[in-house]
Each structure stands twice: as structure tokens, then as C-alpha cells.
Specification:
alpha/beta, 6-stranded mixed β-sheet, 4-stranded antiparallel β-sheet, 31% helix
Length: 248
């Protein structure tokens, strides 16, 4: 384990419009190997936190540190794999081949081969390397994008709503991939989602956000409390199916 936190927010406020913060006085510390889910309603600030970690938006107040370094000075971007929200829509018209796409996001000295990154996400042969990104089916494109996020063997993985438009088979495959990589790479993962069912199969820790942090702890304790209702602003019912939880 690393000595200090992989990600640290210290009294951070973030606003898209000055004086109207989407995140207010937010603090968290995430250590190596943790699997953290950020959950909360749409507009509550989950994606904003992910974007701040990759410096797509700067805080109005407070300090963000990644691997012990102020985010404003951080340059080792190969250490971070970032899957943005609706990633497939960003790349579905890309005309380069899959091989060219994966090489374009590779960092020399850290990246695995495009073939190896595709094997990680379930492609067993190299035929897909010659296909154009724009010609891929939705499911294939999602897996290629995930391969591009993993190709540099990141230490920190940031996934923003990765379960949107993913069926149960795709969700199970994603959880299996992430579980294996956590063991092999000592990976730290932060996932922004409102899919509590996905949380139940993978998360080691849950942080509830609605402009500020309402809860930070285990999913089981959250579901047994009233905090989930406070986060979403209305009553949330949970139903247990075997060893998994779903929300209604």
C-alpha cells in the first residue's frame, strides 16, 4: 500500500458559474487499492469530482492532490485511466483503425501493446485491430474504449457512469475485469454512478454526494440508514435479491 492517499480533496468547492458551487466544502481521502463509488442524484456533483481529478475543471477553493502532488502541478497522466461519461458518443465517428486509436493514447515506456489491451477486455484475436472505430457495434466500441483507458497500466482508474447503456452481461464482464486488475495491478478505482446494483458487486466504499458529502462508508451501513433518502431528496426503497441489492 502507498504511504499517503492516492487522491485527496481538502475543503474543495467547485463551480461552473462563479459563486454558485456544484460542490461545496468537499473533502475525501482515497488510499491505494480502494474501490470507491460516488453515488447521488443527477446534478449532485459526481462527474464534477471526476473531472476535477483530471484537471478538466479547477476548484474555486481548496486543494486537490493526486499521488501526493497538487493537481495543478501533476504531469504523470499515464498513471490515470479516465473513462468519461457517454464515452462511446465521443468516439463513434472516429475514422482511424482500432490499432491507430490505441497507439494514439499509448504512453511510451508504460503502455502494453494494443493486442494485449484488447485481450484484457475480451477480444481473443487481432482481427479487430484492422477495423475502423466508426464501424464497430456499440458493445465492441465500449470495450475498445475501455482497452484505451487501460493500455498504459494506470494506477488510478476513473469511470464516469460506465454502466449507462450497458446490459447485465456487459456489467458482469466489467466487474470481472476490474476485480482481476485490482489484484494484478494494485489498482485504485473511483466510479461515479447512480447504479446501486453495480455498487453492491464491487465497491469497498461508498461516498454519497449531493453538492456535499452526506455519507462515507460501507454500502450495507448506508442501506440500513436514512442517509440515502437525504442524498436523493425522496424516499428510496431497497430490495435484497440473494447477495445483491437493487434500488427502486
Amino acid at each position: 500500500m502507498a504511504d499517503g492517499p492516492v487522491v485527496e480533496f481538502e475543503d474543495v468547492s467547485i463551480a461552473y458559474v462563479r459563486g454558485n458551487p456544484i460542490i461545496s466544502n468537499f473533502s475525501m481521502r482515497i488510499r491505494e487499492g480502494e474501490r470507491v463509488f460516488l453515488i447521488g442524484p443527477n446534478g449532485g456533483g459526481k462527474s464534477t469530482i471526476i473531472k476535477a481529478i483530471v484537471k478538466l475543471i479547477k476548484p474555486e477553493k481548496g486543494v486537490i492532490r493526486v499521488f501526493g502532488q497538487d493537481i495543478l502541478k501533476f504531469n504523470d497522466w499515464w498513471k490515470i485511466g479516465y473513462l468519461p461519461q457517454n464515452a462511446a458518443a465521443l468516439f463513434e465517428k472516429t475514422t482511424v483503425s482500432v490499432a491507430e486509436f490505441l497507439k494514439a493514447v499509448s504512453t511510451k515506456g508504460h503502455a502494453m501493446t494494443p493486442e494485449d489491451s484488447l485481450i484484457l477486455v475480451g477480444f481473443s484475436d487481432g482481427e479487430i485491430l484492422r477495423k475502423r472505430v466508426a464501424d464497430l457495434s456499440g458493445g465492441m466500441l465500449q470495450r475498445v474504449i475501455l482497452a484505451s483507458v487501460l493500455i498504459n497500466r494506470p494506477k488510478l482508474l476513473l469511470l464516469d457512469e460506465p454502466t449507462v447503456y450497458v446490459d447485465q452481461t456487459g456489467l458482469n464482464a466489467l466487474v470481472q475485469i476490474l476485480s482481476e486488475l485490482h489484484q494484478r495491478w494494485a489498482l485504485t478505482t473511483i466510479i461515479a454512478t447512480h447504479d446501486i446494483d453495480a455498487v453492491s458487486t464491487f465497491a469497498s466504499r461508498v461516498i454519497c454526494i449531493n453538492r456535499q458529502s452526506y455519507y462515507d462508508g460501507r454500502l450495507e451501513d448506508l442501506l440500513a440508514s436514512e442517509q440515502l433518502c437525504r442524498v436523493y431528496g425522496f424516499h428510496v426503497y431497497t430490495i435484497k435479491h440473494g447477495h445483491e441489492w437493487t434500488s427502486r
